[in-house]
TrEMBL record:
One Pfam entry name: Response_reg
Domain of life: Bacteria
Region span, Disordered: 151-173
Protein name: Two-component system response regulator
Alphabetical UniProt keywords: Phosphoprotein
InterPro entries (UniProt xref): CheY-like_superfamily, Sig_transdc_resp-reg_receiver, ST_Response_Regulator
Positions carrying 4-aspartylphosphate: 56
SUPFAM superfamilies documented for this protein: CheY-like
SMART domains referenced in this protein's UniProt entry, alphabetically: REC
GO biological process entries: phosphorelay signal transduction system
Domain spans labelled Response regulatory: 5-123
Amino acid sequence: MAMLKALVVDDASFVRDLVKRTVRQRFPVIETTDAQNGRRAQSLMSRTTFDLVLCDWEMPEMTGLELLQWMRQQPQYQNVPFIMITSRGDKNHVIEAVKEGVSEYLGKPFSPEGLSKKIIKVMGNRLRHAMSQKGKSLEGPADAFKESATLLTQKREPSPESESTLLSPAGEKPAAARSAMRMASVRFAESTLTSVVKDINLTEVRVIAKRNQVFPGILDQAVVDIETGEGQMARLNGYVHQLQAVDKRQDTDFVSVTIRFVDEDPQKMEDLSRFVARFRSGTH
């Protein structure tokens, strides 16, 4: 029977499931409950006392920062660990979260190992004591789910190469010379792909990347950074849905990566819709 309670808050069900699975496998003494936004989390926290909150920043109805601000005003939650899990990793947002009393900050995409380390850090001796009472160690087995997913793709050592030298496959012109193509940076827990957007819609994006980079595993988390214009950057959360060689040849120089989006934030969907329209019309 679990001895500690954690609340997982994220508007993307895929991310909630990944966090809950990691906690369940690494820390069997922690029971998890989830909420799709800050408002729902606030309701749950008013009825049940949780020992740990793992929360996204950008969510509809109530953001993670707003939930943190409310939480620190409640006597029973003033000292409860709060881990902010988000793709917003710029310095100003980190400072803002720290001022409001965040315990730790974990950037998306994250690995099960990275999440586990943050949980151990904020829970400290309380978690160690609970695990030892159940005859468990904090040095648990590796995440079998992630390991099996990683085996589905080959990892390659990256080579130093700038975005300006990334070429399109099959003898096409350089990506920078094509009006319908845009550069995209796809971030994973342990690597970043420099790529060009080949196709995009409201549910997924397909990018083309040179083979001599480090590629993710199927179902790995991803954050797609796309410049939407006027200095604005879209940070779209998703997971790797498909990896495929661009050519039928085994020695193909390019790999197609399909990222399926998991964001449900209305503002992000509105921004994405505008970007898709401009992309299909070939305008910048």
